[in-house]
Amino acid sequence: MRRAIFPGSFDPITLGHYDIIERGVTLFDEVIVAIGVNADKKYMFTLEERMNFIKESFKDEPKITVVSYKGLTVDFCLKNNVKFILRGLRNPADFEFEKAIAHTNRDLAPIETVFLLTAAKTSYIASSIVRDVIRNNGDYTKLVPKTVRVK
Ligand code: ADP
Questions:
Q1: pLDDT digits (tens, 9 = 90+) for 25-50
Q2: What is the DSSP letter of 63?
Q3: Residue with CA at minimum distance from ligand 1 atom 10
Q4: What is the pTM of this model?
Q5: Any alpha helices (H) in 7-146, and if so which ranges?
Q6: Does residue 41 carry a catalytic annotation?
Q7: Whether residue 90 lies in the annotated active site
Q8: Can you tell me the distance from the alpha carbon of 8 to that of 113, in angstroms, rounded to the nearest whole number?
């Protein structure tokens, strides 16, 4: 059973995340979308909202599960028999950041990080930009799955 975790904040999930998850499903038997809980971080959406946006998006896809976790991603992997970490790459900044994390994770546990290059059409999308559009009453619906709606 090839199981991968796609960890992130997903505040909120974007079409960029969605694309990586859909493509990840073709590579693995199960993709666990895992929302990392960081008590020091301020989020726009609650954990429950962020989880529901993702669950609703993939409700017809049995190979995708959504969880939240605290602590190190590699510890979650070891406890849940997950052998792969899935991450997306948009640009050189992502690469530098992801490289350091992937090397560190490899020092901590024998878990491979698998990178998928962003789709061209979603390469510019970031949750931080989506939040900015929302805050300023812009049309964020072009950037996120249909399940993400601001009340
Ligand atoms: P984090 O808090 O780890 O930055 P994010 O939710 O922003 O969490 O991102 C989680 C993962 O999704 C990261 O690997 C990030 O590079 C990837 N990602 C974010 N936006 C995109 C996008 N538009 N295309 C491809 N991958 C993306």
A1: 999 999 999 999 998 999 999 999 99
A2: T
A3: 8
A4: 0.95
A5: 15-25, 47-57, 73-79, 92-108, 127-135
A6: yes
A7: yes
A8: 14
Q: DSSP 3-state assignment of 144?
A: coil
Q: Label residue 145 left, alpha or beta by phi (over 0 means left) and psi (-120 to 50 means alpha).
A: beta
* Separation of CA 56 and ligand 1 centre (Å): 19
Residue 129 three-state SS: helix
Residue to probe by mutation, ligand 1, list 6, 18, 20, most atoms within 8 Å of CB: 20
Report which DSSP code applies to 55. Answer: H
Q: Binning pLDDT at 50, 70 and 90, where does residue 106 land? A: very high
Domain with residues 3-142, CATH architecture: 3-Layer(aba) Sandwich (3.40)
Catalytic residue among 50, 57, 87, 127: 127
Q: Is the pLDDT of residue 118 over 90?
A: yes
